[in-house]
Specification:
This protein is mainly beta. About 10% of the residues lie in helices and about 35% in strands. Helix 4 (about 375-385) crosses helix 6.
């Protein structure tokens, strides 16, 4: 059912009137992070990473001005971390959960407590950031509720979408980083999970609706590899949020979410319960050259009544009512109108895949492959004095870019790869300024209006470019990387070192337990990226490098 302009105005008014004063709380969670066995699609049982002996992880709900406290006990045999994807961590960079940048990781049998002030509202998620642990299930939704919703609706429904593998994360990584092309390109395909369940029984993944009600569907792509497209047969949707940023309503028949992205849509149900409908959650596997952009269809049921028949839509899509012409994020208009920053610093980044001198396939920015430094970059910034302004101290393969306070930064991303890439910036939202194609076809160029949409994860399709901006107003060390987890493992990441002298002023109260885990794992807690003094970067590795002719 379409939402008229008058109906949307009523929803906004109702949400504004429905104000309730909310007191700030401490939302405290005590988590033992452990291995457990799970069989979420009924097709394959395997080892996953759970909490308190269970999987999936519990969904986290907080309110604006709360403090989220997670006491994390690491019961794994390797390190681990937790990253609150999309939360800016202003003044709490050491709780960002990025191994090699904000911490060493939580050592096995050690404990670390994350205390995260909730200063944003919207749809976020929490996941591991120690290697590819989120592929093994270390992830959950994190929903931050405002004092008053901008739009009214009858029910809030989480739809967590995931391309799931029957193999453990490290096994997949070993394949993709093999020196054998035959092994690298051997296809391996994921299976769709919806709210952590899947399989052929459509009743396990159904979305229930009742006649006449309006639903907010919070769509989250918690995949580590796949892009997902979502649509409901014979139902219109209205986009009202992307990546925690409320938008003016935009009608659409389908949405596309890359790994890490979130979109909230309003859907008003039919007036009768006489028919059930199919929803689509198809996976695009933009991860291997050998299976690039394969489409793996998945269908579930929007159930009005248990015994109602399905609407007459063939499962091969030939009779589908869903229009797969996706709304471009650059066309969205945020509710909060903020003009974009200017340009003080231009950061051009070319994305490409190649076989490198180590005979492995890597992805990189400007042919510079990323790897995790020994000493976390935050600790380097805190312990090297004025030399914290020298990029060399953070290590060549960290790909550090130093930013002065309040620098207006423009990132120009050029994708020469055959795959799409979702790029996520920690600590900030990015203004999406312009999209276009590398052939400079003016028909494919789309520029934002006066108040561009802001988001923390931006999709870059093949043979295209995107222009992004942000202001360096959050001192800290912030990773910028492809959120296809294995693309990051293959080298597609870099780091912004934001206002080094202000890092010392605002972030010197590093939690003792963070340093204790470093000590347990034998990792230095001061000095440059190699744990040495000043600019002594002897033995800092620069390679591998692309082989010519690839």
């Amino acid at each position: 059912m379409l939402l008229s302009a008058s109906r949307l105005a009523q929803l906004v008014l109702a949400a504004t009137v429905a104000f309730s004063c909310v007191l700030a709380r401490r939302v405290e969670l005590d988590w033992n992070i452990t291995y457990v066995q799970a069989n979420p699609d009924g097709l394959n049982e395997r080892r996953v990473i759970g909490v308190n002996g269970r999987w999936p992880l519990p969904v986290i709900n907080v309110r604006i001005n709360d403090t989220l406290v997670i006491k994390a006990h690491n019961m794994l045999d390797v390190g681990t971390t937790l990253h609150a994807h999309g939360l800016h961590q202003n003044g709490t960079n050491f709780y960002d959960g990025v191994v090699g940048h904000t911490e060493c990781g939580i050592a096995p049998n050690a404990t670390f407590t994350y205390e995260i002030p909730i200063t944003q509202t919207g749809t976020y998620w929490l996941h591991g950031h120690y290697g590819p642990q989120m592929v093994d299930g270390l992830r959950t939704a994190l929903i931050s509720h405002p004092e008053r919703e901008h739009y009214a609706y009858d029910e809030d429904v989480l739809v967590m979408l995931e391309a799931w593998y029957h193999r453990e994360a490290d096994d997949v990584a070993d394949q993709l980083l093999s020196t054998s092309q035959e092994i690298r390109d051997a296809p391996f395909l994921p299976f769709m999970l919806v709210n952590s369940v899947g399989g052929p029984d459509l009743n396990r993944t159904k979305i229930e609706m009742r006649p006449g009600k309006t639903y907010r569907l919070r769509l989250i792509n918690v995949s580590a590899t796949g892009m997902v497209r979502f649509g409901i047969e014979d139902h219109a949707m209205h986009i009202i949020e992307v990546d925690g940023v409320a938008t003016e309503p935009r009608e659409t028949r389908s949405v596309q979410l890359s790994a890490g992205q979130r979109t909230s849509v309003l859907v008003t149900a039919k007036q009768t319960a006489s028919t059930n409908y199919i929803y689509h959650a198809d996976i695009f596997t933009d991860i291997q050259r050998g299976v690039a952009r394969a489409v793996l269809p998945f269908e579930g049921i929007v159930e009005y009544a248990a015994n109602a028949p399905l609407a007459n839509h063939t499962r091969d899509g030939t009779n589908s009512t869903v229009d797969w012409e996706f709304t471009q994020d650059v066309d969205l208009v945020p509710v909060e109108k903020i003009p974009p920053p200017g340009v003080h610093k231009w950061v051009p980044l070319e994305v490409a895949t190649a076989i490198y001198t180590d005979r492995k396939e890597h992805l990189a920015f400007n042919n510079r492959t990323y790897s995790v430094p020994l000493v976390p970059s935050l600790l380097t910034a805190l312990t090297t004095g004025y030399q914290a302004y020298y990029p060399d101290v953070y290590g060549f393969k960290t790909y550090p870019v130093i930013l002065d306070p309040l620098t207006d930064v423009e990132i120009a991303l050029f994708n020469k790869d055959v795959n799409s890439h979702p790029f996520h910036l920690h600590g900030h939202d990015m203004f999406v300024m312009t999209r276009g194609s590398l052939d400079n076809d003016p028909a494919k160029r789309i520029a934002a209006g006066d108040f561009p949409i802001r988001r923390d994860t931006v999709t870059l399709p093949p043979s295209s470019y995107v222009i992004l901006r942000f202001r360096a107003d959050n001192p800290g060390v912030w990773l910028f990387h492809c959120h296809m987890q294995y693309h990051m493992e293959q080298g597609l990441a870099m780091a912004f070192i934001e206002a080094p002298h202000r890092i010392v002023d605002t972030l010197s109260n590093v939690p003792t337990d963070l340093l204790r885990s470093c000590d347990i794992m034998g990792i230095p807690t001061k000095g440059n990226a190699l744990g040495k003094v000043r600019l002594d970067m002897a033995n800092d590795i620069h390679g591998p490098f692309p082989l010519s002719g690839f």
